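Sat 14:20. Reprocessing the chain from the morning session after the first attempt stalled halfway. Input below, unchanged.
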Amino acid sequence: MPIISTYSYNFSQRVKNLSATLLIIAATSGFYAIIPYYQSYFSVHTHYFGKDYMHWQVLVVTTLFYTFTLFVFYLTEPAPRVSKSIYCLRALHKIAISPATVWKTGLPFDERLGLLSILLKAFFAPLMIVWLFSHTGHMLEHGSQLFQTIGDPNTGWLALFNTSGFWFIFKLILFLDVLFFTIGYLVELPSLNNEIRSVDPTLLGWAVALASYPPFNGMTSMVFGGYFTDFPQFSDPVVHVILNVTLLMLMAVYTSASVALNFKASNLTHRGIIMHGPYRYIRHPAYVCKNLAWWIGLMPAVAVAWQTSLTATLITIGSMVGWSVIYIMRALTEERHLRSIDDEYDQYCARVKYRFIPGLV
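Finished this time. Tokens:
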């Protein structure tokens, strides 16, 4: 009798977990399908293996595959627990029934964690999927061009670097970065040691994180502008190559931080502290390197502004200062969140004392 009862409970819990997750996936898919901004955003084409695909097609295929994978997982996991999807639905039910009470007293920890985790995944996962697909397509396209022309005696090394060499390496770097973040958002398993322990519950933490992602980065650009470019052009070929190779090296370190995070890669979460890779030297290597790469990408715009007026120069530089402040705020809010959960981050800070610049800051 206990064996039958246990089996019955397990099966019941599996069905509940699966049903709640499928409901959330359906609701999220419906949301993206009816919002005009996302209809346009996900209708972008990417050239892939000789054909053009729209990003919404990739999302549909990925969603179906992900749903099938979840179906298999929920029906076969060794010891099913109440899923974050169920906690999320419980939280939404309480908010719908009595929003004033929830505002006043808050939600139980598990329900708050479930709600914030699902919101996090629902926002970031679709972006990561289409970016991963896009970066892969561009990486393959530029890689093909590079290997077709690399032995051509009529193509100089600078032309090779400008037409396909830089872009192949750049897209390869971004591909690796987004790959780990995509997996991090979609997969959360005890066996991978990447379960979400906490999600930043503060409005400021979410605001500065979302400010860097569409559609909110459009509003950030309206405030600060966006004068930097991924591949800045310089008239002197030596300076051009040196600065752009430096940019690629900075972006490689940026991505090495994502590789170090591995399957724990995601924004606004506490999933355990990483102390290897570039995190051995400073606490926010990804933010530092990404911003330094953007500062290099700003140089041509500064040069043009300098020839125009001092005001134009200050506006151009101020734009990048604004973006850098966003990332400084992201670092500070992340640290505040991680410190609020347990003492693991404090132990890490005792080992790695500097946030941004070794020996200085």
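The longest helix spans residues 109-149.
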